[in-house]
Write a structure and sequence with these properties.
Chain B: InterPro entries: ABC_transp_permease, LivM-like. Chain B: One of its GO terms (molecular function) is branched-chain amino acid transmembrane transporter activity. Chain B: It is found in: Cell membrane. The complex is a heterodimer of chains A (about 290) and B (about 290). Chain A is mainly alpha-helical. Chain A has a single domain, classed as ABC transporter involved in vitamin B12 uptake, BtuC. Chain A has a two-stranded antiparallel ribbon with strand order 1-2. In chain A, strand 1 and strand 2 form a beta hairpin. In chain A, helix 2 packs parallel to helix 4, helix 2 crosses helix 9 and helix 3 packs across helix 8. Chain A is globular. Chain B has one domain. In chain B, about 70% of the residues lie in helices and about 5% in strands. Classes of the chains: A mainly alpha (about 290), B mainly alpha (about 290). Chains A and B meet through helix 4, helix 9 and helix 11 of A and helix 3, helix 4, helix 9 and helix 11 of B.
Chain lengths: ~290, ~290
């Protein structure tokens, strides 16, 4: 029971971690919270589900399309809701992003309707048996895929020119510009990468819960922000750690404390973190 | 028709209180609260429960609602207002989710059905059942809110708040205790939202969680941004426009949230100061040019 809850928690936690990475990367480079991260997650899932529902698109192509759709929405969002407001009081882009989030959510409601859509492809995993512990094959696959994406991100940031340029911009935007880095392009690239990761999280949860609907990104988006704060905003390993921890805490809390207050757990953790250790577990640049 | 206009006027008055109080947080403390409707709801339930369970007279119910929501605001503001702007936005949003879950699940709030039969206010034997009489209470509430806001904003403390909003470090160098000011203004705004909640509950007489969700919080933010962040008259105007507009555009109801969201983005990109900006309603354009 306990171990099963732990694995469930790690699975949902891996989706929180993927969205939290988007928050953290954008926060790192712009110092702003992209409130619409949860909606990007939702659009990524929808693109994949709609393509697969046609029955003519192979699974991997649909997933790639979902990631691209998420990336494009992130890119548009940066152009429309953030770039015109650079240099304004931080309150202004924050409210603008909230507006964008409501806009995207109601747009999805109008385009796709309010109903849950099941995932068009079913996966047949044989239950694994790991040292006597029965593990759902789907959960294991999702967890592995999420860890794969996280690994790719870390490799990208550490070892490629563009990744290093993003880090340089996050550390000191003006100096990075003096070194010949095109900061605007790096901001766009950050939005693309961060949004694609959120889209990946959305697709995984669409498979896991077998449901895609316009409001699916709202709570995961908020919880992922809590995860980013828990790990230390602006800190990439921190976002992964925070997401997984939050997923586990939520799953154990729902099992052992109260399931009707499950959604409150993330926010109680958020308030506690801000009270006790505002810089997060791994020190972020947020504070 | 007259009854309907009266109904809209009462609701508009309640939203004026909400928008003006949220404007204190956004326009003066330089913070965003996305959980203002949660305080509105807490006020509504607190007032109802005091009146129903303790058989308290109406003024006492209102006062208890205001004190209780003020304390909730204090409890939420203390840990978060020391930090950057963005944290308060998410924490208040999360707070809204928590309060929403509580309203849905707790026994004392009547669960998802809410509470039916909130008592009609009566003061000194006069019952305020008739909407026209109730309007008097709402007008009193609005006047109280506007008066408190005006007195605060034009006082030493108001200038201190503006200094914090415009440049926090400079304000601190001048000896202004900025976290204390932010927490105080947050608690005051919460308490005014509690007043609005109480006015709403005793008017509608049937409250449940639906009135106090995120949708309402966002609506209040839209009112403040539309009117102009930091302008009290602007918030009044924003509240009036966004109460009347949805009623006249009933056929576009499905697009309401789409319009609100787009409005926020477009407004901030094109005219971030809102309709009135930080200026006051000025009659200067009526004066003859010399």
């Amino acid at each position: 029971m306990f171990l099963q809850q732990l694995v469930n928690g790690l699975t949902t936690g891996s989706a929180y971690a993927l969205i939290a990475l988007g928050y953290t990367m954008i926060y790192g480079i712009l110092g702003l919270i992209n409130f619409a991260q949860g909606e990007i997650y939702m659009f990524g899932a929808f693109a994949t589900v709609l393509l697969l529902a046609t029955g003519r698109v192979p699974f991997l192509v649909a997933v790639a399309a979902g990631l691209s759709a998420a990336a494009v929405i992130g890119l548009i969002l940066e152009r429309v809701a953030f770039r015109p407001l650079r240099g304004a009081h931080p309150l202004v882009p924050l409210i603008s992003a909230i507006g964008a989030s409501i806009f995207l959510q109601s747009l999805a409601l109008l385009l796709f309707g309010p109903n849950n859509r099941p995932f068009p492809v079913t996966f047949d995993f044989t239950p694994l048996n790991l040292w006597g512990l029965p593990i759902n094959g789907l959960e294991a696959a999702i967890l592995l895929a999420a860890l794969g994406f996280m690994g790719l991100l870390i490799l990208f940031v550490r070892y490629t020119r563009y990744g290093k340029a993003i880090v340089a911009c996050a550390l000191d935007r003006d100096t990075a510009r003096l070194m010949g880095i095109n900061v605007d392009r790096m901001v766009s690239l950050t939005f693309i990468v961060g949004s694609a990761l959120s889209g990946a999280g959305g697709i995984m949860m669409a498979i896991y819960y077998n449901a895609t609907y316009p409001r699916m990104g709202f709570l995961p988006g908020l919880k992922a922000f809590s995860a980013a704060v828990l790990g230390g905003v602006g800190n990439i390993p921190g976002a992964i750690l925070g997401g997984l921890l939050l997923g586990v805490a939520e799953s154990l809390g729902a099992a052992y404390i109260s399931s009707s207050y499950k959604d409150a757990i993330a926010f109680i953790i958020l308030i506690l973190v801000l009270l006790i250790r505002p810089q997060g577990i791994l020190r972020g640049k947020g504070h | 028709m007259a009854a309907y206009i009266l109904h809209l006027t009462i609701l508009g008055g309640i939203f004026i209180i909400l928008a003006v109080s949220l404007n204190l947080i956004i326009g003066y403390a330089g913070q965003v609260s996305l959980g203002h409707a949660a305080f509105y709801g807490i006020g509504a339930y607190a007032s109802t429960l005091t009146a129903m369970n303790l058989h308290a007279p109406y003024p006492l119910a209102v006062a208890s609602a205001m004190v209780f929501t003020g304390l909730c605001g204090l409890a939420l503001g203390l840990p978060t207002l020391r930090l950057k702007e963005d944290y308060l936005a998410i924490v208040t949003l999360g707070f809204g989710v928590i309060i929403d879950l509580c309203m849905r699940n707790m026994d004392i709030t009547g669960g998802p059905d809410g509470i039916v039969g909130v008592p009609t206010p009566s003061i000194l034997g006069v019952s305020f059942r008739a909407p026209l009489l109730y309007l008097i209470l709402v007008v009193l509430g609005v006047s109280f809110t506007l008066l408190v806001t005006h007195l605060l904003v034009t006082s030493y403390h108001g200038r201190a708040l503006k200094a914090i909003r415009d440049h926090e470090i400079t304000a601190q160098v001048m000896g202004i205790n900025s976290p204390a000011y932010k927490v105080a203004i947050f608690a005051l705004a919460a308490s005014l939202a509690g007043l609005a909640g109480s006015l709403f509950a005793h008017y509608i007489q049937h409250i449940n969680f639906e009135s106090f969700g995120l949708h309402t919080s966002i609506l209040i933010v839209c009112m403040v941004v539309l009117g102009g962040m930091g302008s009290m008259v602007g918030s009044v105007l924003g509240a009036v426009i966004l109460t009347v507009l949805p009623e006249t555009l009933r056929q576009f109801q499905a697009y309401q949230d789409l319009i609100y969201g787009g409005l926020l983005v477009a407004l901030l990109a094109l005219r971030p100061q809102g309709i009135l900006g930080r200026g006051k309603l000025s009659l200067k354009f009526l004066e003859r040019k010399e």
